[in-house]
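Take a look at my tokenised protein here and describe the backbone shape.
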Amino acid sequence: MEIPVDDGIVLYTYWRSSAAYRVRIGLALKGLAFEARPVHLVREGGEQHHDAYRGLNPQQLVPTLLHDGHVLTQSLAILEYLEERFPQVPLLPADAAGRARVRALAQLVACDIHPINNLRVMQYL
């Protein structure tokens, strides 16, 4: 069951981005309705580099989440925001050790695995 969000959630995303995928998973687990706005990371040199998107996210990365007048970037920060803003379906365990384990696993993927497969790194190499 989807939970409608009064002010609406907009997610700038790309189907192959594991970072954007993390946020889509979090939104789905929480049952939050959102509008997906695709940002093609390859077409036309990468739509993330276009002026309109650069104005929204100067890092020129996905995902970017808009909610309640806020522009949020970086998948783990977005997930933390969703956890705090919409606690009714928790992503994190109730106990501190369990939360630390989940955060460690998330950081393992985001900080150790993801950078090696990142489009920017692959294009540079």
